[in-house]
Amino acid sequence: MLLQVSDLDATVDALRQAGVQFLDDRAGGVAVRQVLLEDPSGNPIELFEPATGYHERARTTNRS
Amino acid sequence: MTACIRYIVNNVDDSIDFYTRHLDFKLEMHPAPPFAEISRDDLHIYLTEAQSGAGGGAAMPSGERQTPGGWNRVHLIVDDLDGLVARLRSQQCTFRNEIIQGVGGKQILLQDPSGNLIELFQPNTAAYRAPGSGSRR
């Protein structure tokens, strides 16, 4: 499951302070920045922050 | 905002073919070999190959690689489960189980080419409540 957020760094900080465990908090990515956290059962939840216009560019320029 | 699920797959092209041919998904975009977005009505799925670089399929800081499979799945509501299952079987699709009857309907677990599950579900009892029917907004 992907959850889009507008400020990834602030969201990660707030969740970390609340005790949420991250599988990967390096905020890497191609055109988007993303992290993976765990739900209480270990299911991954992805938080991502797209660069401005990312979705529009991807749909119009790279369809195949 | 569109709801979106990411499925880790072994091969994006094989997965696009599977979902578009068998389950009426449409290809939204395929901007790079290891990534594509497909959709079926409001359900959007990011198909992503596990990889060593950055991105949604990247390995964990521990070095653990992402792998397809597990028991979580998307839930697809269908009109004629028996007919669909018969058609998919004739096309050599693989199921994890047989059709079972539950409280709200009957269902079966279909596997994609990477072993990710898709639950095919046909509501058929008075107890069934469609997704969103409990929302008060």
Structural write-up:
- The complex is a heterodimer of chains A (about 60) and B (about 140).
- Chain A is of the alpha+beta class and about 60 residues long.
- Chain A has helices at about 10-15, 55-60; strands at about 1-5, 20-30, 30-40, 45-50.
- Chain A has one domain (about 1-60): 2-Layer Sandwich (Signal recognition particle alu RNA binding heterodimer, srp9/1).
- In chain A, β3 and β4 (about 45-50) form a beta hairpin.
- The longest helix of chain A has 10 residues, at about 10-15.
- Chain B has one domain (about 5-50, about 65-125): 2,3-Dihydroxybiphenyl 1,2-Dioxygenase, domain 1 (Roll).
- Chain B has 2 helices and 9 strands, in the order βαββββαββββ.
- The chains are: A alpha+beta (about 60), B alpha+beta (about 140).
- The interface between A and B is medium-sized, with 20 and 19 residues.
Unreliable runs of chain A: none
- At the fourth level of CATH, the homologous superfamily of chain B is 2,3-Dihydroxybiphenyl 1,2-Dioxygenase, domain 1
CATH architecture designation of chain A: 2-Layer Sandwich
Text of the CATH class of chain B: Alpha Beta
Record keyword descriptors for this entry.
A: 64 residues; alpha+beta; Signal recognition particle alu RNA binding heterodimer, srp9/1; four-stranded mixed β-sheet; 28% helix; 38% strand; B: 137 residues; 2,3-Dihydroxybiphenyl 1,2-Dioxygenase, domain 1; five-stranded mixed β-sheet; 2 helices; globular
Would you summarize the structure shown here?
The complex is a heterodimer of chains A (about 60) and B (about 140). In chain A, strand 2 (about 20-30) and strand 3 (about 30-40) form a beta hairpin. Chain A has helices at about 10-15, 55-60, and strands spanning about 1-5, 20-30, 30-40, 45-50.
